[in-house]
Design a protein that fits this description.
By secondary structure, this protein is an alpha/beta fold. Helices cover about 35% and strands about 25% of the residues. It has two domains: about 1-245, Rossmann fold; about 245-280, no CATH class. The strands form two sheets. A six-stranded mixed beta sheet has the order 6-7-8-3-9-10, sandwiched between helices. Strands 2-1-4-5 form a four-stranded antiparallel beta sheet, with helices on one face. Bound molecules: adenosine-5'-triphosphate (ATP) and magnesium ion (MG).
């Protein structure tokens, strides 16, 4: 069980015209063990796509099944529970913090789903610890911590709902390199220790290369690639996807051209470095 898109289309309704933001989307996402990066140039439809995953937007054509729930729903169906199953963290989620204290902000989601106070507190404290927010910060204002910490508090608010699938719209945007790595490490831990499915939108090909197992490329409202990360960069259509190569692959290509070091793909800097240490010139 997870998320299935079947020939899904979505059109934004303007005053006079409609704008097709998604066309003929077919996609299957498992409820466990996925680590998917969604990439594509600006305006291609990525955010529109992920907002379908927890029924924030409903298909205007085609059909979806999200944890047994058909979408668009029949009139009598209640679909609110899907927000708990699929936790969506928006772009710049820290702008949505609003409570007086950090712990109250994290507890907002669970409480909204009528989870009782003590249970809401326990879940929220656990989520806060997962993202590295310690107890001594709980009673502080969410507006008196750093931007990176605010982002973590916002992520914890979604984690406290214990979603089966975690969806993040550009979670590392605007963070410094350490902030990026720390946040990505949290998602990796959730994925590895709890088999949590993680889906994230990013423009950062180094993040795709280091972390993703599967990549979905969107171009002009359509999926043009859905497959393993390793196969993406050698795909014959890769030049048409308007994506950059990840830096470690660029370096290997450059070294082959300039120093004749045979090209081998490395997807992160550590493994590239380990390899180059052993190369004899
Ligand atoms: N509320 C809206 N009303 C009308 N058109 C919209 C609306 N939201 C998005 N669009 C249009 O739909 C298309 C897809 O938008 P979307 O936000 O899904 O793109 P994206 O791939 O997430 O882009 P980015 O990388 O810039 O975040 C864009 O052309 C955008 O202008
Ligand atoms: Mg977007």
């Amino acid at each position: 069980m997870g998320i299935q898109f079947k020939q899904v289309g979505y059109a934004y309704q303007g005053i006079k015209t409609k704008y097709k933001a998604l066309e003929d989307i077919n996609l299957n996402i498992e409820g466990k063990n996925e680590f998917i990066a969604i990439v594509g140039h600006t305006g291609s439809g990525k955010s529109t796509l992920v907002q379908h995953m927890n029924a924030l937007l409903l298909p205007t054509s085609g059909e979806m099944i999200v944890f047994d729930q058909k979408l668009p729903p029949k009139k009598k169906d209640k679909i609110n529970h899907l927000r708990k199953k699929v936790g969506l963290v928006f772009q710049f989620p820290e702008y949505q913090l609003f409570e007086e204290t950090i712990i109250k902000d994290i507890m907002f989601g669970p409480k909204n789903f009528k989870i009782y106070d003590e249970e809401a507190y326990n879940r929220s404290a656990e989520a806060a610890h997962t993202v590295g927010i310690s107890d001594d910060l709980f009673e502080q204002s969410p507006f008196r911590i750093s931007g990176g910490q605010m982002r973590r508090v916002a992520v914890a608010g979604i984690l406290a709902m214990q979603p089966d699938i975690l969806v993040l719209d550009e979670p590392t945007r605007g963070l410094d390199p350490k902030g990026k790595n720390d946040l990505m490490d949290i998602f990796v831990k959730l994925h590895e220790e709890k088999n949590q499915s993680v889906i994230l939108i990013t423009h950062d090909m180094d993040i795709v290369s280091k972390y993703a197992k599967r990549v979905v490329v969107i171009d002009h409202a359509k999926i043009v690639y859905d497959g393993k990360k390793e196969d993406l960069f050698t795909h014959p259509n890769f030049p048409n996807f308007h994506l950059d190569l990840p830096t470690p692959l660029k370096i290997m290509k450059h070294l082959e051209k300039t120093l004749g070091i045979p090209y081998q793909p490395f997807y992160d800097f550590d493994s590239l470095y380990q390899h180059l240490k052993g190369v004899k010139l």
